[in-house]
Design a protein that fits this description.
two-stranded antiparallel ribbon; 16-stranded antiparallel barrel; mainly beta; 376 residues; globular
Length: 376
């Protein structure tokens, strides 16, 4: 009962404070005066530069490809899947920012003009994050803020703090094209007191950071996560999450996603389960396509630095059809000790995709890869 009471009080306090902040109350936004003898907030401007590199060596066992002379071969390649440059900083203890260009290999053989692209194979520079942030920590529980600009969407960044293997591949709803990890918009996060969870919601363009806004339609996204027992040692890593994305590609269309998630963090294992339902309607006169699926994953820790990656995705792109897509990922990783903010990991894995009753018939995809992550 005490835990339920504390949780109820934390939600009430957060909502009341959020109302004061959103309403622009003069008292809420007045200068915060430190208590007598307290340390005033540090308003010294600062800038930090860091980076992230995803690299891999991949061998594709199937399907085979064909040379111009008709001979068959199994592709293999060394790749840099992603490279990020992170510029972060504070203008004051309330105002901060982030600018992150995304460096990615261009794979389009034909340009927008219909001619062969001279960028095909080159690594191109594009913006992934660029936002300003107002911290609400002076008035709300720590970790509450408002952001404006190109930024993380509510679900993916949150999940990847628990599922740490984006350098192997994206999480299920993003890999199947239902969500994007970044978009331009106005969002806010409110943390519950006593570490009971948080709510992150906002309005986005809806088309993602890699596309221009096409019209006046906007996407509303909201994620609410509850930590039921933050004071209980064994269960404090348990979180229940609901996510809703209400969007439309055109007026009268639909691009809706509803997802339920259960995650667990523990010194011996991280694990998660996602269930997704999606509705798409490309035009106002078009028909709805409903997809659904689920993903189950776990990363058991074997010894210091060593852990397994086990994942299974089951996806049905159209619930009126029998076609399914099933992905299995199994690998072993080593995470080097974190030293002064530098994180390094290697992963050896097998990623297999099987297609069942897909028309036209599609061969299974099976790849072996050595992945590397470097964060600094």
């Amino acid at each position: 009962m005490d835990r339920c009471k504390r949780f109820g009080e934390s939600i009430l306090h957060s909502l009341v404070a959020a109302g004061l902040v959103a309403g622009g109350g003069a008292a809420a936004f007045a200068q915060v005066t430190p208590a007598a003898g307290g340390t005033p907030p540090d308003d010294t401007p600062s800038v930090k530069v860091g980076g992230v590199v995803f690299a891999d060596s991949t061998y594709q066992d199937s399907p085979e490809k064909t040379n111009p002379d008709g001979s068959r071969y199994k592709p293999s390649s060394f790749n840099v899947g992603r490279a990020y440059l992170n510029v972060t900083g504070n203008i004051s203890h309330r105002i901060s920012f982030r600018i992150t260009p995304d460096i990615k290999q261009e794979t389009k053989a034909v340009g927008a003009d219909g001619k062969p692209s001279d960028l095909n194979g080159s690594y191109v520079f594009r913006l992934k994050y660029a936002y300003g942030q107002l911290s609400l920590d002076d008035w709300l529980p720590k970790g509450s803020w408002v952001r404006l600009g190109m930024q993380q969407t509510p679900l993916i960044d949150y999940t990847e703090q628990i599922y740490r293997y984006r350098f192997q591949g994206t999480i299920y709803p993003e890999r199947e094209g239902y969500l994007t990890s970044s978009d331009a918009g106005l969002t806010s996060r409110f943390a519950f007191a006593h570490n009971y969870g948080d709510v992150h919601f906002g309005v986005y363009n809806g088309d993602g950071y890699s596309k221009a806004e096409a019209n006046n339609e906007k996407g509303l996204q909201i994620r609410a996560s509850l930590r039921p027992a933050p004071m209980t040692p064994v269960l404090k890593g348990l979180r229940v999450t609901g996510f809703w994305d209400k969007d439309a590609p055109v007026s009268g269309g639909k691009r809706d996603r509803l997802l339920g998630q259960l995650t667990f963090e523990h010194p011996r294992v991280n694990a998660g389960f996602d269930y997704l339902e999606a509705t798409d309607k490309a035009t106002s006169a078009g028909s709805e396509v409903k997809g659904k699926g689920w993903s189950l994953w776990a990363t058991p820790r074997l010894a210091k630095g060593w852990e397994l990656l086990l994942r299974y995705d089951d996806h049905k792109p159209d619930t009126t059809q029998d076609a399914t897509k099933k992905r299995t990922v199994a690998g072993v990783a080593y995470w080097f000790p974190v030293e002064k903010g530098v994180s390094t990991a290697f992963l050896l894995d097998c990623d297999r995709v099987r297609y069942d009753k897909v028309s036209p018939t599609q061969p299974d995809d099976k790849r072996f890869a050595l992945h590397a992550l470097l964060t600094f």
